[in-house]
Amino acid sequence: MNEGLWVEPSFKASFFIVTTILMLFMTISAPDQSKPLLFDTLQEMHIISIKPWSEAITEALPIRTTVFVQEQGVPKEMELDEFDANADHALAYIGPLCVGTARFIRLADKKVQIGRIAVLNGHRGNGIGSELLKALLELGRSQGIEEFELHAQVTAMTFYEKLGFTPLGEIYDEASIPHRNMILLMK
Questions:
Q1: What pLDDT digit, counting tens, does each position of 126-151 carry?
Q2: CA pair distance 124, 92, nearest whole angstrom
Q3: Which residue ranges make up each domain of the chain?
Q4: CA-to-CA distance for 184 and 163, rounded, in angstroms?
């Protein structure tokens, strides 16, 4: 055996091979499953990245358009607003694939609003939304934020309550969807 023939693959080549294999496993579905094969194994591999809108737009906007405009019927002109440009955006990745997003808007010195939490349909129910929210809460804590607020869709209130948010005020209509404000105070 000639040991001189082995060539160590570069990091880029190795990353490409591993990424390709992960993407293949993530997109192959068994006939009786709604989630890709090996998803339970891969779900622990979520990576959350915080980016400004200028870097997040190419990945966050398609997810938000799919979830809010196409699935929930929110008018396209309501989905994007003046707050995106100055907000921090959390993006959730499984391997190289961005599957979820959320945003963090500074309202006052120690107060922020979290919103636009969206996870692609095939990846819901696996903790990605919680991870996005926890990442933004940690970002806020690191900046001395004392009050987090959000406009919760009524159907998602239990999700937010599990993470410590409490209802505030009455139910109201936003984009023809029932909402209720929720708040989390840090001590």
A1: 999 999 999 999 999 999 999 999 99
A2: 12
A3: 44-185
A4: 9
